[in-house]
Amino acid sequence: MNIRKLFVSLVRDETSQSRKFFLSCIPPLLAIFGFFLLCGIVVYLREQDALEFYRIILLSGFASLDDFGYVLFNATPLIFTGLAVAIGYKSGLFNIGCEGQLYVAAFAAAWMGMHLNLPVPLLVPLCIGSAMIAGAGWGAIPGFLKARYGAHEVINTIMMNFIAFALMNYLVTSVYQEQGQMIPQTPQIHEAAQIPRLASLIPILPQSNPLNVSFLIACACVVFCYIFLTYTRWGYELRLVGNARDVASYGGINPRAVTVWVMALSGAIAGLAGVAEVMGYRYRFLDSFSSGWGFTGIAVALLGRNNPFGILAAAILFGLLNKVALDIDILLGIPRGLFFAGQGMLIIWLVCIEGISRKKNDI
């Protein structure tokens, strides 16, 4: 009888968890549906073929392996920044400094790649490790200020972004500028520090496709974050501090220490986006190389419900939208800015729908 009751309770708990997960997926799906519906209406009002617009969306991302490779390439840095934002958010922290953290990390990787000429098994881990340490250090600063002085992390991370942009601009234009180049960029890193493209591992992928091993690192990072948040003691402490700070303190957890190491971990993960750029694509540090990945990561984390696998799916969606924006500009003459504005509406709808659903649950 006791075994039967236990089985019934487990089934009910599993059903409840599945129902919660399904309900949590509804707001993002509604927001995505509303976004594409609005895009079709705008195309129709411009007296263009809306069906052709939707056909281009499908062909742009999935017509060939080369097209899908570009989608995954666009999604790679967003996976890192989305995970970084989610890690902070789970502990009650809002990390808006991913952009600055990935810049500092990218320069650290480039510096190591330029000055060290070691075998690949040594140089690649050293470059990646130095980038993660630089990103972690840049993230730990606002974390320390939050823990020690109560300074809000949003203000701190925004200011740290400005400092990172200015400092990296100075270094790349006045100290490490490549000779004979008007573009503010460093010299190329050593070949041993370069991450190979997946085309060298997947013969059917065109050699010109920029998708590289950093995407596999991003996927591994997704799995790591899921295991870390769900099954480790540190993940439990992180989530407990975010949900009930006073209870965590009563249970012997130091919220101040958690704040510092969470921001450091968030910065380290964001720094991997810089690694993907420097070691996997351009093979040098280029000033202003990011198209706002750190800020877009906030939207990715929001759309992915701060779940690592949800963030992976959301990043791929944004990678598709970034590629589609270029294609519809060329093929249909629809300005890219208009399409990007629609992406902003996507996030606004998501926030509104989530707020309405929470209000209904409270009632």
Model description:
The longest helix has 44 residues, at 2-45. Helix 3 (65-90) packs across helix 12 (308-331). The chain is 77% helix and 0% strand. The chain has 363 residues and is mostly helical.
Jot down its keywords:
363 residues; mainly alpha; 77% helix; 0% strand; globular
State the gist of this model.
The chain has 363 residues and is mainly α. It has a domain at 79-309. It has 13 helices and no strands.
Topology:
Elements: H1 2-45, H2 50-62, H3 65-90, H4 98-115, H5 120-149, H6 153-175, H7 214-231, H8 233-243, H9 245-250, H10 255-282, H11 293-303, H12 308-331, H13 336-362
Helix pairs in contact: 1-2, 1-13, 2-3, 2-12, 3-7, 3-10, 3-11, 3-12, 4-5, 4-6, 4-10, 4-11, 5-6, 5-10, 7-8, 7-10, 7-12, 11-12, 12-13
